[in-house]
Write a structure and sequence with these properties.
Mean pLDDT of chain A: 92
Helix content of chain A: 25-40%
Radius of gyration of chain A: 32 Å
CATH topology of the largest domain in chain A: Rossmann fold
Oligomer: homodimer
Shape of chain A: flat
Largest sheet of chain A: 7 strands, mixed
Largest interface: A-B, 85 and 84 residues
CATH architecture of the largest domain in chain A: 3-Layer(aba) Sandwich
Strand content of chain A: 15-25%
Number of domains of chain A: 5
CATH class of the largest domain in chain A: Alpha Beta
Chain lengths: 730, 730
């Protein structure tokens, strides 16, 4: 088995030149067509009719000209180089075409055909062959199973879609209809749009993180928006994302979390949908803003592209009715946004322009005060944004509909208010956004707001989510933890003694360390492992117990007995010599009886742990992200309540502390029912040690320190279990 | 303090005649106006211009005629009776007007003015006076602080809104702008609408449940849709709702769950927003479908009004792209909807009309198979709904947009498909609904679907929620538990000995029962309370312990010492005579030292409990719903993890079992880590007993049986605490 950093990669590596792909000066459309329904026509038509300035070569052996362009019999007939190829022909033709493109100096090929990795093992093998062939020919593949790419500025549109609105959002997606969804939404509900659209497809060659790196450096891209079914190289993605988010926001929606959804994703893009808890915490640490609902994707990206960030998480709500005010307050509270009290000065100013029954609390309810003059919205907004405690404003309710619902002349007042709100935001550099129930009717006042970069949403929930994104990204930038990178340094921190333990086990054909081996491994790495002794006879056990001091615990030591309790191989609270002697004989006889073939090394003796809070610290190898630390309270809190936190290795001190505080039950560490507070620093240190061990020995697949009893000072590792990747993986 | 069933109610009770209000044959508009911005004009204009056939009396001392109608100086000048009055004048004028209306035989008055219960204690008193006066005059009040009511069929529109779309949904709301929101949405996104709109306002006189009862019996009302900030008579609401939901669905959104939201609700309608966990379980038991998002309100009500119910929770997804298919599968799985495997017959039929790379699993992805012929959607729908395992169909993606996005002639094919889908639903009586990303563009094909009662949504999340509502209401009707009513029979099941214990405590000025009193109370009601003895001396303690058999627990018994452990008044695991003797002296001396003034009755002795799972069974008095049972696991599972279930009293056996199964941690009762399963029947029985005790003695405010140790057979109530409402409440 190969280790992750030793994989032989067919994916081209250094020869990726996305700039030459996205700025291609010559494009061949292979499978160019006169049939208007085919992509070989549509893409060609978009290139011809648009601003695309490079050379265009239709390739089709059956046609002489298409759309006024000379059509070539084959790739080899094209005069001069081909920077980029769009291959719209079926899967079985791709191999020959790639070979031909290799001779034309092509750097990138977009492969539309399905029938590769997403259709099962045979398709996967075929896909790998194609990628290998392409890379050998110096060609990088976008897709396969992709709708293509669009570079708006150049009108380099290989998807063939019309009416893609222009803006500063780079779109990376694993679904053509989600892309169409977002484009349609941008057209209908926004004045902004996209600068790139990349259909990532099966992500067989060029991976998400490679596109991300490009957009990260692209000065025109303000926000990167991603629809992901599964990440082929999750670890590399996190590395790249955590760099990108320091310069621009990344918004992501991940589907495929259910069994049916994950199966659907598999048959769609061949993606392996990962455990959502691990990816959630990993994305968060990388500063990626994950949305929970596809309807939030475009609005959140738009908000982050257009609005100034929130300086802190304190905003005001301005409503023209109690219902929307109440619901918005509920939502924002759920999302951790604060609605501070207004200063008395602010309240006085509002009181001067609003009716007596207006609510001058935050949320502010104008209570009919704007019914005859909606410009009062702008007056209120100015007062609120001038309050030093208020960093942003959410306006909710009917704005935009006064002219429609009540009297036509109110429309003009709404337009006046829109101009003033727009200028106010520009001046104050504090974000303003709206929920309007009249958005669907598209009144002019709302278009004006959008002209001033004030987004308007037709869902209160989505508007609140956008406010959260502004707050979350702002605080990520302020609190970014420099230690929290995702660089795995395999074998960093390896200790010869530790390596020896692992090598011994592997040499003996074992993929599980014995408990005393696991304990020794962690002891070598500085973990507070209490002394233990391996006794091979009852006499030795007594000597050991007296060395340790009573009272002691005794456990069977055998590579063949994993479930020690089940084999009646554990006895606790042994307080004197006869008890130890009896326990030794009993444990050995119990285990001999249950596992007559077992290789019994003896019994392990340790002191009984002091009382404390039972926790679990573990490590497992995630399919997408590699080694991942897990932390939670012991017993049913982990197994039933799933109250667990995850972080991928390596974990920094900052993130170790986040892991402890993140579990719902963490308050019990502060002291519970009269108990003293627990030693959280000791837990954090142990988490760091587990992270270090996982990194030092790539052969380790799983670690389970369970239970770990945390005291008011220090902790006790009661049981330790280490599973290796496989006996032949040294 | 009055008990709930003994409250003196000023709220008119029997003289409510909503039929005469909603079908009023004469209406006075008090505060009628020529100012078009005022409700006194708008309401009058709607009455005059519409189909309203009754007599209309504008009242305004300053005008002679308004809108061609004679205007009266005062109510008393109106000739003949006034069935219903709309009072648009300020709060301070209402008292006089009510007195005058009393003389005109008026049955109902809609009071628009704010400044009552929602503005604080003074406003509340004023509100109570007005209601009392009105009821004495035979008048019931809608509001105050309401936008009014609309009866669509009669064009009885006192709100003054135009363009309220007609349909079969009765709308009950505590917010005018939420109503406007829903009406706007219905106009723009639906072909159905409302038959009633009632602005409930402060709910000061006529309560939610009274309107509910009326709509329940109204044959034209198919669904009742409610926006609630707080229920003034929550218990009566549950009683009425559980009757109503047996004949028609009730959809409800409740806001005010956050501190800020609840404060906003308070200043809006004076509502006391309740604990959302209690209301959630109560609504569910009453068969009310609670939505979590205001954007779901209208769609869910529309779906329930238009579509056949789901026969079970198994549906198919039909998608024209993998992204939407995957997301829909995730959502539906989260909501508990099943996506069964398709039969091989179904798969064969689909394979015959779809391309090779189509996914014939459920979700079905046509993979381009509809690109040139969207009528294939109708073919697929027919095949899917003829599968015996499939009870409903969700179509997701671009349908409606083929003509817009690809080629105009595809629109006609989409329209053809719409007609066929409509007829298919009618024939099969299985629900069909759509998510279309082209809804916002309002293509004709989607209007056609709506004509056939197939709803179309522009949010995938909302479409899935609507499917859940069809499934949930269907299963509620199938599984309705007749025992699960909400009728509180105070004093039912009272036992003289139990009453005596309570009376004694109250007579002694105590509002807490001593532990042995509480134990005796539950013992009298058949709960498995283990024997206990009160010892007043060390000698007695020894006798008691020997009677019980060792080992025993000993606890201080004093009405003045509530926190027994804190006072060092508890000693456990006493195994012999000297231990018992020493413990008695120690406990008495500890408590004397800590509480020198305490009235010490002695020490209570019980057996130590066998091992088992620690649980808590409690009862508390909820502000909105009255006595409510609480159940959860002991320790941090209740206090930190909030893994608790609630049911209002009385609890039936069915709902007691639901309470046990509903907590997340309930799987541990099935046997955990080799333990035997726990006696869930014993827990259910104890819950029933607590419910019975809560009902038998209205003086009880709180019960806390904590911990209750559940064994594989039976359970042990280790500590029991009963708090009474107050010492002067007999």
């Amino acid at each position: 088995m190969l280790l992750p950093n030793e994989e032989i990669r067919f994916t081209g590596g250094d020869n990726l030149n996305l700039d030459r792909i996205f700025k291609a000066e010559s494009i061949a459309v292979i499978g160019a067509s006169k049939n208007e329904a085919k992509q070989g026509y549509k893409a060609l038509a978009r290139l011809v009719e648009g601003r695309y300035e490079g050379r265009i070569y239709p390739v089709n052996p059956k046609e002489k000209t298409i759309l006024g362009l000379k059509c070539y019999h084959s790739v080899l007939d094209v005069p001069g180089d081909i920077d980029l190829a769009l291959i719209t022909t079926p899967a079985h033709t791709v191999e020959t075409i790639i070979e031909q493109l290799g001779k034309k100096g092509t750097v990138g090929a977009v492969v539309i055909a399905a029938g590769f990795g997403e259709v099962g093992d045979e398709g996967k093998l075929f896909e790998e062959e194609i990628i290998k062939l392409a890379n050998e020919n110096g060609i990088r593949i976008i897709g396969p199973n992709t709708p293509g790419i669009i570079v708006i500025e150049k009108d380099l549109n290989l998807v063939g879609l019309t009416n893609v609105p222009e803006g500063n959002i780079a779109l990376l997606t694993q679904s053509g209809n989600i892309a169409l969804n977002l484009i349609t939404e941008a057209n209908l509900k926004s004045q902004t749009g996209f600068n790139y659209y990349v259909g990532v497809g099966n992500e067989a060659d060029i991976k998400f993180h490679e596109y991300l790196e490009y957009f990260s450096e692209d000065p025109d891209t303000k926000v990167i928006l991603m629809y992901v079914e599964g990440l082929r190289e999750g670890r590399r993605f996190l590395q790249e994302a955590s760099k990108t988010t320091q310069v621009k926001p990344v918004v992501l929606y991940k589907s495929g979390r259910s069994v049916k959804g994950s199966k659907s994703a598999g048959s769609h893009t061949g993606a392996l949908a990962g455990i959502s808890e691990v990816s959630k915490s990993a994305f968060k640490r990388a500063g990626v803003f994950e949305v929970n609902n596809p309807g939030e994707m475009f609005p959140v990206a738009e908000t982050l592209a257009l609005l100034p960030m929130l300086k802190d998480d304190s905003i005001a709500i301005l409503a023209d009715g109690g219902g929307h005010a109440t619901i918005a307050a509920d939502y924002l509270t759920d999302l951790g946004i604060k609605l501070p009290e207004l200063t008395s000065e602010t309240r006085d100013k509002l009181a001067a322009i609003l009716p007596d029954n207006a609510s001058l609390d935050n949320p502010v309810d104008v209570a009919g005060g704007t019914d005859r003059d909606p410009t009062i919205f702008a007056d209120c907004a100015k007062i609120l944004l001038n309050d030093e405690n208020i960093q942003g404003l959410l306006i909710v309710g009917l704005f935009g509909g006064y002219g429609i619902r009540f009297a036509k002349n109110l429309s003009y007042m709404e337009e006046d208010a829109a101009h003033r709100l727009g200028k106010l935001m520009e001046k104050m550099q504090k974000p303003i956004m709206l929920f309007s129930l009249y958005d669907y009717a598209r009144p002019h006042s709302l278009e004006l707001l959008r002209y001033y970069n004030i987004p308007v949403y037709d869902s209160l929930e989505i508007a609140c989510k956008c406010m959260e994104a502004l707050s979350a990204y702002g605080s990520y930038l302020r609190e970014y933890d420099k230690e929290g990178n995702f660089q795995l340094n395999w074998r960093f921190g390896v200790i010869p003694g530790g390596q020896n333990i692992i090598d011994t086990a592997l040499a003996e054909g074992r993929n599980v360390l014995l408990e005393y081996e696991a304990r020794e491994l962690f002891r070598l790495h500085g973990a507070p492992v209490t002394p233990d002794y391996l006794a091979t006879s009852a006499d030795e056990a007594v000597t050991c117990a007296e060395e340790l001091g009573y009272n002691v615990a005794m456990k069977i030591a055998s590579p063949d007995i994993l479930h020690k309790s089940k084999a009646k191989g554990v006895m606790l609270g042994l307080n004197d010599e006869p008890a130890v002697r009896e326990a030794f004989h009993k444990i050995i006889s119990n285990c001999n009886q249950k596992y007559p073939e077992a290789d019994i090394k003896g019994c392990l003796l340790t002191n009984m742990s002091k009382k404390g809070i039972e926790t679990v610290v573990g490590m497992k190898t995630d399919d997408q992200f590699g080694p991942t630390i897990m932390f939670g309270l012991g017993g049913i809190m982990v197994s039933v309540m799933k109250d667990v936190s995850f972080q991928v290795v390596p974990v920094s001190e900052y993130w170790a502390k986040v892991m402890i505080d993140e579990i719902k039950s963490s308050v019990i560490f502060e002291g519970f029912r009269g108990r003293p507070p627990s030693d959280k620093d000791a837990i954090a240190k142990l988490i760091l040690t587990v992270s270090e061990v996982a990194q030092a020995y790539p052969q380790i697949k799983e670690i389970d320190l369970n239970p770990v009893i945390v005291h008011d000072q220090g902790l006790t590792i009661v049981d330790a279990r280490v599973i290796l990747k496989s006996a032949d993986c040294r």
